[in-house]
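Box 3.1. Reading complex inputs
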Amino acid sequence: MTIRNHRNQSRLGEGFTLIEVIVSIGLITTALGLGAMCFAEVVRLRGAQERYTQRLNAADFLLRRVADDVRSAGAFLPSAGEFSADARTLILSGNDGPVVYHATERGVERVELRPGRAVRALLMDAAGIEARFDIEGNPGAARSVITTAEWNEPAKIGVSRPTLSLRVALRNPARRP
Amino acid sequence: MDALVALAILGAGVFLSMAFFRAEVKEVRSTHERFAALLIAESEIERLRTLPYERIPIGEGQPLELKLLSAKHLKEATGTLTVQEIAPGLKAATVRIHWSSPRGTPLRVELSSEFSRAGSQHDDTKP
């Protein structure tokens, strides 16, 4: 008994062997590496989700803004000022003159054409969102327009090509400019 | 032994984190699809607004042709329209959009609105 106690005490005093230390360091390094990778992935995913939410809000804002203008407009116009209606340009006859939505590389521009001047505002200043306006029928006689906003997202957030479309109809189609 | 326990705890933490992120990605996709489907339903209600009152077709579960670009991004998206004349000169329309999750779970949103002969639409849409 005395001999065994003595052996245990001397074993405790020896510390770890080189193999034990190496294995421990290897395990700790692996665990820390996995933890760091996981944390980095969390940060990347969070950032991607935040950018997605910003773009989603910008697209929703555009759709709602166009819808408000269409509902109060009297007609879709084929042209006004320097603008001609196409898939990237929507022209409405507003209460105070034509209102133009024009999709560009930078975003979507809203232009109010007043006598002698144009009031411009850049909506949806979010890079990468593509907007298009599909008038259902000839601009002069059409009653509704479909606005579509789409953009690319990294696959990791679950939606690689988010696309939102909204059809809006004129509420006062009889009124013409 | 201590090292193994520590590793097991860390491993469980990593596993739980990954499971959480997968669930979050799924949630983002699901929320986006639901939002897109609601806009599609709203668009179908708007299409009805362009029709004269008499041409809003009465019937239950009438299939809809979903022409919107966003509908093509929903898996197996279909739509139905139910219209009832709830009072003389007043029709209630309900649009239902059905689609499937990537795993095949059926999903659905619904929007309702009312249309009057006088042309004054009641905007009490409800999801």
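In summary: Chain A has a mean pLDDT of 85.
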